[in-house]
Amino acid sequence: AEEALRNTCVMALLSMLFVALCVAGASAHPHPEFPAYPDDAPRHSLPTDPIVTGSGDWKYQLDVTKLTLPSTVSLRNGHGLAKDHEGNIFFTYESTSVNAATRAIVRFNPDGTNGTLVGGDNALAYGTPHGLRISFEGPDNKSYLYHANNDHTIHKTDLDGNILWTTNMTNTWPTQYPQFWPIKPTDSIVPPDSKTVFLSDGYGSSFVHGFDTTTGAYLNGSSFGGKGDSTGPQKFSCPHGINYDTRASDVLLISDRANHRLQWVHRNGTHIRTVDMGPGSPGAAAGQLPCNVDVHGDVALVPGLDGPVGILDNAGTVLSVLEVGKLLPKTCPHPHDAIMLDNKDVIVCCWAPGLITYWKHLD
After folding, report:
1. Distance of CA 48 to CAs 45, 65, 360, Å?
2. Which residues lie closer than 8 Å to 91 by C-beta, 6 or more apart?
3. Helix (H), strand (E), coil (C) string for 216-277
4. pTM flag (> 0.70)
5. Which long-range contacts (CB under 8 A, 24 or more apart) does 308-312 make?
6. Beta bridge partner(s), residue 52
7. Contact 211, 218 (CB under 8 A)
8. All residues at 6 or more sequence positions from 292 whose CB lies less than 8 Å from its CB, including other chains
9. How far apart are CA 67 and CA 44, in angstroms?
């Protein structure tokens, strides 16, 4: 009996240690290809000389007068972008530290001015705020934000940052769904007219999971993927970004970053097609480490962690490359997310050192 009790205590301690290690590691940002930028390292200013990039109908010039962050922001890593029906721009980021005044969202006017902190408290700033998506739901197309946090968590908020629900998987999933553990969410998307938010686990086990948009409850049987490089069944290696491709019907578009490819799948995870962005491929010029995809009209905007931001047509042909990393090697070497505005201007946020930049479309 004494030995059984001792074994029980040992197993309990090991279980506690396992969870503690997972929680402690949740805020780590696994980019093995590149070193993190130290908090105490110098932050370089953007160049004042004109910087132009791109080609054909997709040429851009850096505008350093826009997207000025509030003075209280202490930015470590830039992570996610979204825009609402009115064109307002939302930027989520990781702070160097969290105190009572810390927030995780800045909202800008559609023209990139008037950066304002969003949220009534600092709840969204804990862990590692990462993916940001906007969703238009219900008969009145009401707007909501979904926040994928590396700390085993997804939040749903209104546009003012008020939390409507939070699903934190830290204490339940290691035992309830061990096949999906660890889970370190990186992005999410709600397809049109859907009641499911699809959460991509880019830094954990490379699955995609479905959650109820009203309650945040996990939807059993909704998960697909897992680590690998096959397409039948569909596997991923760091499904870093997930979006809905408005150019098709009922199609999810996933940035399968460590596999150097874009993946189109049905909502049940069955494979549709692939665009290769690996070394030697036609897509490689647009970035071999695709972080995300923003579909705008007939084109897709793809930020690559290795430096470029590509503009691709529906077939995956590269139309233009914004050489952000080469042109801004000290300030924006690692594009992490990008969105295109209605006027074709482009917003790019960079991982480390954290930064958000405005690129004006040249007619």
Report:
1. 9, 10, 15
2. 67, 78, 80, 81, 105, 106, 107, 108, 132, 349, 356
3. CCECCCCCEECECCCECCECECCEEEEEECCCCCCCEEEEEHHHCEEEEECCCCCEEEEEEC
4. yes
5. 308/335, 309/335, 309/338, 309/346, 309/348, 310/283, 310/285, 310/286, 311/54, 311/58, 311/286, 312/275, 312/283, 312/286
6. 61
7. yes
8. 187, 240, 241, 243, 255, 302, 303, 336, 337, 338
9. 16
* pLDDT above 80 (res 19): no
Residues 267, 191 contacting (CB under 8 angstroms):
yes
Residue 195 in tokens = 């009641």
Identity of the residue numbered 220: N
Q: Over the stretch 309-330, which tens digit does the pLDDT of each residue have?
A: 999 999 999 999 999 999 999 9
- The bridge status of strand 271-276 relative to strand 294-296 is unpaired
DSSP string, 107-164: EE-TTS---EEE-SSSGGGSS-EEEEEEEEETTTTEEEEEEEETTTEEEEE-TT--EE
**How many CA within 13 A on the CB side of residue 313?**
6
Tell me the three state secondary structure of residue 175: helix
Please give the order of strands across the beta sheet that includes 105-108. Answer: 75-83, 89-95, 105-108, 116-118
Which helix (H) or strand (E) segment holds residue 174: the answer is: helix 173-176
Neighbouring-strand partners of residue 117: 106
Name the β-bridge partners of 75: 95
> For the stretch 259-288, what's the b/e string if a residue is b when 16 or more beta carbons lie within 10 angstroms of its beta carbon?
bbbbbbbebebeebebbbbeeeeebbebbb
Q: In the structure encoding, which two tokens stand for residue 194, read together?
A: 């859907």
**C-beta of residue 70 within 8 angstroms of C-beta of residue 106:** yes
CB-CB contact of 182 with 218 (8 Å): no
Exposed (0-12), middle (13-18) or buried (19+): which is 61, by Cβ within 10 Å? middle
pLDDT digits (tens, 9 = 90+) for 52-111: 999 999 999 999 999 999 999 999 999 999 999 999 999 999 999 999 999 999 999 999
Report residue 132 as tokens.
């940001």
Query: How far is residue 308's CA from residue 301's CA, in Å, rounded to a whole number?
Result: 11
Structure tokens given for 314: 């529906």
